[in-house]
Queue: 2 jobs
Job 1
Amino acid sequence: MKKTLVALFFVFACGMTFGQLQSPDQFLGYKLGTRYTPHYKIVNYFRHIVENASQLVKLEQYGETNEGRPLLLAYIASSENSTRLESIRINNLRLAGVARDKMAPNAEGPAIVWLSYNVHGNETSSSEAAMLTIYELVRADNSRAKEWLKNTVVIIDPCINPDGRDRYVNWFNSVAGENADPRSFVREHSEPWPGGRPNHYYFDLNRDWAWQTQVETQQRLIKYNQWLPHIHVDFHEQGYEAPYYFAPAAEPFHDVITPWQREFQTIIGRNNAKYFDENGWLYFTRERFDLFYPSYGDTYPTYKGAIGMTYEQGGHGRAGLAVIKADGDTLTLRDRLIHHYTTGMATIEISSMHANRVIQEFKKYYDKARSAPVGDYKAYIIRADNGDRIERLKTLLDRNGIDWSYAHVTSFSGFNYFSGKNENFKTAANDIVINSNQAHSNLISVLFEKNSRLSDSATYDITAWSVPYVYGLETYGLNSYVAGTSKEAPLKITEKVSTGPAYAYAVKWNGMHSARFLAELIRRGVKVRYAEQPFYSKGKSFEKGTLLVTKTGNTASTNNLDKIVRETAQTADVEYTVIESGFVEKGFDVGSDKVRFIKPPRVALLAGENISSLGMGEIWHFFDVQLHYPVNVVWVDDLDKNILKQIDVLILPEGNYRLFLEKSMNEALKDWVITGGKIIALESVVAQMSRSDWGIKMKDIDNDKKDEKKEDKKPDYGSLKRYENRERDDIPNDNPGAIFKVELDNSHPLAFGYPDYYYTIKRDDNIYEFFKEGGWNVGYLKKDNLVTGFTGSKAREKLKDGLIFGVQNMGRGSIIYLADNPVFRSFWENGKLLFANAVFLVGQ
Ligand SMILES: [Zn+2]
């Protein structure tokens, strides 16, 4: 579970002869594709390669996974280029205009092709293909490869997600018999929960490129951005019935994608097709896999000047070593890896053939990005908040190589993302500026677009991610660049810490840092309270939710309470104020019952079959990595009265729960809530509870039915749909993920630390009736509050005037309904405090 960055170094080999170089078959002792290769053997094979072909290959360990597996990059180049990899890298950054030395680039090249394998752990054929690919590239008698390497550097990441891969491979090897069973209904074709696709915390690493919430991505993107390859391929697998998919990609293409990027996708696709045609293999292009959401292994490289592509082989966790398909043919792991090997080699070949053009166009892309950036605005000014969201945003920008600086204090006019209007405004110290005339302007434009620019509305992922809403930070778009900015941080305004004896310590409740502070204090056994109302002490104002640590109640740690608070504040990066008297100037005294004791919650999180591993993993990661607060993960089928007795908070992530249909368990849950338990129900779990008798009701707005009543005498020509339009006809009901403005009752603890609004990522059309009694309507949609993104016309009609976040009281306990996921993919930064409120403050 180590997460430390390991020392990064090149591994040089001692053996210098090619004679000992073994093929994967020789090295592994079996024919590649007849067994699954565990990750450590792939690592050993790559080490073997560099030991026996050190003139052509350098191997670098760039990091480590959550479970301690090494992350590797192999650099394959001609022996001449191998000796000057560092100068090739720096020259490439000069081409992009991001080299520190600002020297003129040499336009000769070489082309840089980066091949990424096995981002989804159970799409296993690709890491097997990586071994064959590197072997063929360095094998002494492969003269074609030698030719390509003269003007092309190949970078291979043999496995982006080793923890996920080994979860699948170790499971498969543990259940497979002597011979693979190709019948799809047998055990080896049905992975147990959660499956090998995601990483240790069940994150989909192919949704994480831009946000970099996971250690694998964080470490890899450092390297990626130091190289900025010209071609990037992300190798995947899809359902085993599907033919192979390669570029060109499907619509929608994001409109920042350049004509050259489109053109070269087609050139690459045609070269792949040549080999598939020769072998009679089926394939398809320009369907299903679009280029829009910025956090994939094809789009992110594309927004950084590369030809970014996804290749998909039929296979996946259900394919085993061999599987009989509907047409009666048997697809083997061997077939799958050979296809991936073929496209990998064909891509290197065609890139080498066009190396000069590839390099020229890469340079042109970056020249234009700096001199004539696209996008809504020339500059963006982001207002610093009083919490830590601005700090988190700076980290995101830094990780993506986006330049920002501090604004000077003066007046500007620009488009306010929150009000939707052009306004005059005055900057304050710590506000930041992003000018778009810089290398990565395309990525900036995508991250800050105020309206999603879809060239086609059928997409299979969220359609909105605009940073101001994700972070909840007031942002202005300006039509001119901002000069006179500074890289130097303005002097930090530190809280005046009183020197008198402490009666209590106060910390503002305004971001994840505050939640981290609370979690750490609880872990250290300190009792913490929170103020339900604002108060003033020594002329300073403290908002609702302010944490208070009093001497009273903490007698056990009185002697070193000061030290504990100081240390914890440092760890969590928060400032604290010493309060000398319990008698406040305005508001309620520290001893008032409006200052609530926070009973340390014992939290359980349900996991298992029929629960979304992604939804569960986001919450697990939230507690384990972000808060460092204990969470008890419980198999959903094990949940019983005895477990309920031992916990205070039960979290039900997205999933399908039988327990609401089982009378005795449904009642046991209610009894537990009545005696003081707290349920946090997320996403469609709220819908399931609305169909049971919990008290929350789905809003019934079936427009079709109303229309039927009104017009029941007229013939319904609307149902005469053309067969060929069947995919498009589903679109009106679609809401793959759009941003809506939610009105908040921020006097309720669920919304402490927020203004009276919140931007939510809505990924369905579920909305609920307002509570009339027995509950609090904390977050709701009023009228049509779609801010940005695609929502089908019927779904949009429905998403009005209803509840999204609610709290229902039941006996001494409560139920918190979060119809939208506030910790979505962990990049939805502004929702994290809301979730912390649900866990720690509500019901105390
Ligand atoms: Zn995949």
Job 2
Amino acid sequence: MSTPVTLDEDRAHLLHPLHHPSTYAATRIWVSGDGALIKDADGREYIDGLSGLWNVNVGHGRRELGEAASRQMATLAFHSAYAGSSNEPAIALAERLSRLVYPSINTFFFTSGGAESSETSFKTARFYWKALGKPDKIKIISRHRAYHGLTLAAMSATGLSAFWPMFEPRTPGFLHIDAPDPYRFVNPDPGVSLGVAAANKLEEAILREGPETVAAFIAEPVQGAGGVIVPPPDYFHRIREICNRHDVLFIADDVITGFGRTGRWFGLEHYGVEPDIVQFAKGITSGYVPLGGIGVSNSIRDAINNTPAASRWMHAYTYSGHPTCCAVALGNLDIIEREHLVERAAQRGARLLEKLRTLESLDGVGHVRGQGLMAAVEVVADKNTKELYPPQAGLAQKLTNAMLERGLCTRVAMDCICLAPPLMISDTLLDRMVDTLGEAIPAVLNAVASELSVR
Ligand SMILES: Cc1ncc(COP(=O)(O)O)c(C=O)c1O
């Protein structure tokens, strides 16, 4: 940056995601990163406990990704990838993904991020059923506590109600079922496992709405922003059965769980099932440049290819298949493969979870969970009833601040402290993250207890 910038200029000219002026006091200006560490404008260093926003999978400071971008920009800055026009990095990336992504998915469309990918999935699901002569199959079912982005249809699929009120009405035709949360889901049917009971909620919803009206079910293999909810092992098998039985497409939102985060390339690999559509973003470029996309099954690809030109798949973004973004993605995939980061995420994730479980004995730690390098510690007011702290306790902000003061940057969602560090993080830094939680949680809970008793 040639001239120094200030927070006053930020306040005067910049609207932030989830903007509100009350957050300015806590704003840090991030200036550099190296591996799993980031530095602010005051020169303080922090562990990047959430890999930015769950995306910097290969860590910061990878010069080769800058060089890949620079080479491509110097060769071809941009040209349309609309039908009848293509570019080399986009072709190479789609071909490479066809070998990495679920075996039944071989055809890809690129976007600029997660929400555009959600929109593309929903439109493609509706297109597919119209192409097959079932034009009434339009509804999309998702889960409470899901996050699928914040454009209007994506926001309507997102199951975190705090995002809705000031933007209502939501897009019609979107509905939600319960999340398969092993900690909080109350199994209404003792005859079946919690995973099957949670999946059966989908069948109930499809039957209630009428299968002839439902286009697709969308699910994150592990719900990220909703508090890292790892479903029971039998959940997705049952989901796949239900989708098959009722002709409902299954969309996997692998925006966070793709590209190694959970210790497998893609999240549903843990469950041995495949989706009809997979959507991705974040880790495909490790956040170095914006890129997302969807992959579709062969039967969806055939429906798109076999439709008469007059009713073609009229979906497009200017930046679909952007050459620089695709070139950076190819370089990022090289790093993930060369450094065996998927396997490392599995090993380091097992270590992280084991260490985090030592915190379960602390007052206020209700549940610890994770898969690969994606974990959460849920803080509760009462471990027996699982009751959360009242909103006026301001617990999430206090926990975030207490961790920042101790050199750990991460996010707290509904009193779940989320952890998803870069996949190359060292054991030493992993252990330091756990130690930081071990100090910050009791310190914050003691302060909150005395504040609440004074009120
Ligand atoms: C699972 C999931 N889907 C979609 C999105 C939306 O992505 P974006 O913010 O790039 O639009 C996110 C973002 O966090 C996400 O976690």
